[in-house]
Amino acid sequence: MRSNRSRDTAPELRLRRALWADGLRGYRVARKGLPGRPDIVFGPARLAIFVHGCFWHRCPLCPPRASPATNRAYWEAKFEGNTARDARQKAELEALGWTVLVIWECQLKKDGLERIVAEIQKHLRR
Questions:
Q1: Would the pTM of this model clear 0.85, i.e. be above it?
Q2: Contact yes or no for 57/9 (Cβ under 8 A)
Q3: Which of 18, 35, 54, 85 could join 59 in a cystine, given CB atoms 3.0 to 4.6 angstroms apart?
Q4: All domains in the chain, ordered by first residue
């Protein structure tokens, strides 16, 4: 698992390129000091964005995936821990007054970047 990146993943880079191409600047990447260290942070707007991989974070939009065949108990505990941590971090950020967007890897593929960038812009205008 050491080779699995925690930041600058392909979905994150794809979204950041789309934000940049659309003229959205001023965000920070993996800003320290916030619960969960969101992938993209627009500080003045108090908008935190997590770009989650469907496999590791168990996307609710995707059909259920099988766990790896070996060491099944470890993997089930790992995935349950990931989802519990994600929910806890989101709740902590919201309690601090942040708006939290969770963007799933499959959304970047299915929904298209334009719709996701438009949703982010909508939150920034509030």
A1: yes
A2: no
A3: 54
A4: 10-125 (3.40.960.10)
